[in-house]
Structure formats: structure tokens, C-alpha cells
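Please check both lines for our workbook:

___
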Amino acid sequence: MNALPEPGWSAWQPLAGLPPLSAQVLAETLDGGQAFRWQRESDGHFLGHWGDHLARIRHSATGHAEWSAPAPLAPRVAPALQIYLGLDRDLPGLTDSLPWRSDAHLATCLAAFPGLRILRQPFGETLLGFLCSATKQIVQIKQMMALLAARHGTEILPGVHRLPTWSELAVIPEVTLRACLLGFRARYIAQTAQFLAAHPGWLEATESLPYAAAKERLCSLPGVGEKVADCVLLFGAGRLEAFPVDVWIIKTMEHRYGLTGWKPAQIAHFGRTHFGPLAGLAQQFLFSFERSVHG
């Protein structure tokens, strides 16, 4: 694989602290529904945005992930990737502590995606992404996020825009937001933006609260139900006890655990009880496996 940097980009470097993993697991981590700002390029590399950061990540011939960034951004992208990919956490060790020894299906899921990681995204961006997610597939959510960035986000490099902040969203009329393919979600985003503008520091305080209190606060926002709140806490605040319940988890729990007819709140309670304080980590393996088999 060519190791020469592209013009204007830093040289490819290994992601320090990230164990070898398969191309499938790297793709599932970056582009499997945790985040909506990664695009697979024609050469198989992934181009991703988060906050004020932009990077490419690829799978090398040695099985390691490598990264490159625009030269002006590279010095701050390097430490940001450590946080974003959760490299400050011993996820392999945490994964091994899941109850896979007594749960044959969980063991199958872990074996299918060895090294799968939970991303740690900017909290406000995660909320925006999952407010866009209602009744939409990943490709459609990515379209909405790309339009929001291109039309309303600050330019961080020529032609490259970050997502708008919540304070920036607060001054955008709902009808303008709808032009970003948001549909009814524009109302929830506009109302949430107005609320956050009137309550400075609310998001930061919520992110730092214990799981139950943080979830209760998030569920008070327009358009945020338990599933969205759990996604925001799992992928934006690193709360591994959160157990989001979507259609794939409902299918998993019906077909693999016999929970036919259970409501999402009951399934979420089962998940947190059965899988323990790392239920969200187990959920991601269950989700990825079910989607790979039936997606």
C-alpha cells in the first residue's frame, strides 16, 4: 500500500494503542451506525469529521489501522483520535469481562467482530445525529448531517465545514432546517436548539451526570425518547451501561433470547440486568452481528 502522503496531508501513521483488527471491524466501528460523518472513499479509506477535526483512516496490509489528516490539523487530530476511538479505555479487557462464557450467542457476536470499539464523539454532535435518526437509515442520516454542515457549519478548511453548533442552530428557522432533508425532525432540532440557547451549560452538565439522571434530562428534550437518549449517552458520553433498543436489538432479543412481545423499555431493562454495567458494549456486538446476518 502506498505510504506516501497525499499533497497537503500528513504521512500515514499507525493508530497508537489500537490492536490489529480486520477491515470489516474497522468499517463497522466507523460506519456501522455509531456516527454519521464517515464516508468510505473509492480507495477504501474512510474520511471522517468530528468537531473541528478531519481525518482519513485506512486498514493497512499488516492489519493495523493508520491515519492521516490535513497537515494544518494533524497536530491536534492525533490526540483527538485517541479520545474519539476510546483508546484511553481498555476495551479488549472490558469486552472479555462481558458474560460471554455463560451466553453462547454473545460469544458468537464477540467472535464475529473482534476488536469492535465504542466511539466517544462530541456530546452535542451525537445528540444532533440521533435526533436526525428517527425512522431513517444510516445513509439518509449521513445525508442530513452533510447538508447541515455544508449549509450551516463553520468552515474549518477551504470547502470543509464542521457541523453547526447548537447555538448556531438556534438562529436558523425551522423551514430552513427542513431544506436539509430533515422533515419533521427539523421541528425537534429547532425546539431543542432554542431550549439549549436559553439554558447555557445544560448539555455539559448533562454529560457529567450519572447515567440515570443524564438520561432523564435528555428525555425531556423535544424528540428524544429512551432509545435516542441511550445512543447519545453510549456514543457521546461513554456511558457503557446504556442499552439502546432499536429494531435490530428487538429482533435479537426475540430470536436469540426468546423475548417475543417485549416492549423496548422492558428489553432495555433486561439488557442492563443480563449484561451488567457494560451492557452498551454488549449491545454493539449484538447489533453489529444481527445487522451483518440479516441486514
